[in-house]
């Protein structure tokens, strides 16, 4: 009889819920995915229905077991990874959410951030490692308490619970027995002191949030509790939780100081492992906690590109130059040097290291010779240039010179983009065999905690390289290209300067 055992990862993302079952070698043995509704009540507002988050996540887990023929008795542990910062508040007794989930992308609380006192903003920076923004959970919690009838009163009476998505899933998986989160998710609430590892009283005060709302915080690899038998058909330990980007860093086995992964999705998210060094960036990068097991906290520098793969979606849906994202590569191959055209896709301002919310996109260097192929190539290259800007900032802030860059995410499948990334960075770019680093990270955390894997040495041995991209560009060419890109960025920024 087959007595193979497995680990289940629940990967709750912004647009879909997924379940992946892994074996001991880190192979994918079952995978199911379901999209769920995006709710846009007003321009700039984004919500999800918490019950749909839960039902979609539960159904993919159940289907994944049924379709792969791997029953709950063969699953040794469950790991959770999730969209970060998204805020859910529910009634402790009934389990009913008092409002929809307010999603990380939602800008409705920007005014709360603008109204922060300067000394409070500075306090946030040095306590949480974050740059105050509506993106993080704190102002979203405040908004629900201030705007949902009766919520503030109930919260004061200790009748409500807050959670990021991991906490909401854990609470439902355990039928309301466990209200907890992990450090990586806590570090994105803008309420957690990442140096002393505790909810910060002054921050709770600033945002008027009663402490009774908040979950217990544990390391990412931890026995959080058993799933209720009625949920997955057996009691299974939930033994790993990490926010999606930290889970990907773990799944990529970037355990050493200076190791970096970049995920090329809709946006790009880059994390550099700093181990036990808490460093505040000079260039507007965030400092955040990494996933781990012990009591010693680990830190990472994080930077994101707002418009990554989304620029390719724009070529497809807005410009209608391509029919599928992967076609971008076929067209781009026909262009050698973009005809010296640069495209800066600053559709919604520019993030790190420039931080200008009024900057807008631009196309520069057009001549009569520019073709559709050049235009597409310039758009693809913009993803690599933006990534390079963040990486250079990270190297400066950390004082560490990078050896290579580990990549994953949908657009990392594009060979031309990966080659150009290597060329423009003058670093090796390494794409692992398994691009599902996020789910794999959650599985590894849970599996190591229950002893399914013996430790990080064993999972490192699972890692296989899909392809390495080695720099082919000359030093002169690289310098010329980077200079062109910087000129183009200045155009995008000066467009904002002259705004009336
Ligand atoms: P997310 O998790 O943010 O939804 P994914 O990791 O699924 O993103 O990646 C999807 C993104 O990657 C889309 O923005 C898409 O345009 C882009 N993408 C997918 N395949 C390619 C490709 N071959 N070349 C360039 N971009 C791609």
Helices and strands in order, then pairings?
Blueprint: E1 6-12, E2 16-22, E3 28-35, E4 47-48, H1 50-68, E5 75-82, E6 88-91, E7 101-102, H2 110-114, H3 118-128, H4 137-147, H5 151-156, E8 160-163, H6 165-173, E9 180-182, H7 183-186, E10 192-193, E11 198-199, H8 201-207, E12 216-218, E13 221-226, H9 229-232, E14 237-243, H10 244-251, E15 260-264, E16 268-275, E17 286-289, E18 299-305, H11 309-318, H12 327-333, E19 342-344, E20 362-364, H13 372-398, E21 404-408, H14 415-425, E22 428-432, H15 437-449, H16 456-462, E23 465-469, H17 475-497
Parallel strand pairs: 1-5, 5-14, 9-12, 15-21, 21-22
Antiparallel strand pairs: 1-2, 2-3, 4-7, 6-8, 10-11, 13-14, 15-16, 16-18, 17-18, 19-20, 22-23
Helix pairs in contact: 1-6, 10-15, 11-13, 12-13, 13-14
Bound molecules: adenosine-5'-diphosphate.
Adenosine-5'-diphosphate binds next to α11 and α12.
Structure notes:
There is one protein chain. The chain has 500 residues and is α+β, with helices and mostly antiparallel strands. The chain has a domain at 6-245: 2-Layer Sandwich (Nucleotidyltransferase, domain 5), CATH 3.30.420.40. It contains 17 helices and 23 strands. The strands form 7 sheets. The protein has a 7-stranded mixed β-sheet. A hairpin with a 4-residue loop joins strand 10 and strand 11. Helix 1 (50-68) packs across helix 6, helix 12 crosses helix 13 and helix 13 crosses helix 14 (415-425). The chain is globular, with a radius of gyration of 22 Å. Adenosine-5'-diphosphate (ADP) binds next to helix 11 and helix 12.
């Amino acid at each position: 009889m087959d007595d193979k055992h497995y680990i289940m990862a629940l990967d709750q993302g912004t647009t879909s819920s997924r379940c992946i079952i892994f074996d001991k070698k880190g192979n994918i043995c079952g995978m199911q995915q379901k999209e769920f509704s995006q709710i846009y009540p007003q321009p700039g507002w984004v919500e999800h229905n918490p019950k749909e988050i839960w039902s979609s996540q539960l159904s993919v887990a159940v289907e994944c077991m049924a379709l792969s023929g791997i029953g709950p008795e063969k699953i040794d542990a469950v790991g959770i990874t999730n969209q970060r910062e998204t805020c859910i508040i529910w009634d402790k007794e009934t389990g009913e959410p008092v409002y929809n989930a307010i999603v990380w992308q939602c800008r409705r609380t920007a005014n709360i951030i603008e109204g922060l006192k300067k000394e409070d903003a500075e306090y946030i920076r040095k306590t949480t490692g974050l740059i105050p923004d509506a993106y993080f959970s704190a102002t979203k919690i405040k908004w629900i308490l201030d705007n949902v009838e009766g919520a503030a009163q109930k919260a004061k009476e200790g009748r409500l619970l807050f959670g990021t998505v991991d906490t909401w899933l854990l609470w439902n998986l355990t039928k309301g027995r466990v209200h907890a989160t992990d450090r990586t998710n806590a570090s994105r609430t803008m309420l957690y002191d990442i140096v002393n590892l505790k909810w910060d009283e002054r921050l709770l005060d600033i945002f008027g949030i009663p402490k009774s709302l908040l979950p217990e915080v544990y390391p990412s690899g931890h026995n959080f509790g058993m799933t209720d038998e009625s949920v997955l058909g057996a009691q299974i330990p939930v033994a790993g939780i990490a926010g999606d980007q930290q889970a990907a860093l773990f799944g990529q086995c970037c355990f050493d100081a200076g190791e970096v992964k970049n995920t090329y999705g809709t946006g790009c998210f880059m994390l550099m492992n700093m181990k036990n060094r808490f460093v505040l960036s000079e260039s507007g990068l965030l400092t955040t906690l990494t996933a781990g097991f012990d009591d010693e906290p680990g830190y990472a520098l994080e930077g994101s590109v707002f418009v990554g793969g989304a620029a390719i979606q724009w070529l497809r849906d807005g410009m209608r130059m391509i029919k599928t994202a992967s076609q971008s590569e076929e067209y781009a191959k026909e262009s050698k040097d973009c005809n010296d055209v640069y495209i800066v896709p600053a559709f919604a301002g520019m993030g790190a290291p420039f931080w200008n919310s009024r900057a807008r996109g631009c196309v520069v260097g057009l001549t009569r010779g520019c073709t559709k192929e050049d235009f597409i190539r310039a758009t693809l290259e913009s993803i690599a240039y933006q990534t390079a800007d963040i990486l250079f900032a990270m190297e400066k802030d950390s004082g560490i010179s990078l050896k290579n860059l580990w990549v994953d995410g949908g657009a990392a499948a594009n060979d031309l983009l990966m080659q150009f990334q290597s060329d423009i960075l003058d670093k090796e770019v390494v794409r692992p065999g398994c691009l599902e680093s996020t789910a794999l990270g959650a599985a590894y955390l849970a599996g190591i905690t229950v002893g399914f894997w013996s430790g990080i040495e064993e999972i490192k041995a699972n890692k296989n390289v899909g392809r390495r991209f080695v720099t082919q560009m000359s030093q002169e060419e690289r310098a010329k290209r980077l200079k062109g890109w910087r000129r183009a960025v200045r155009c995008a920024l000066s467009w904002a300067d002259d705004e009336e």
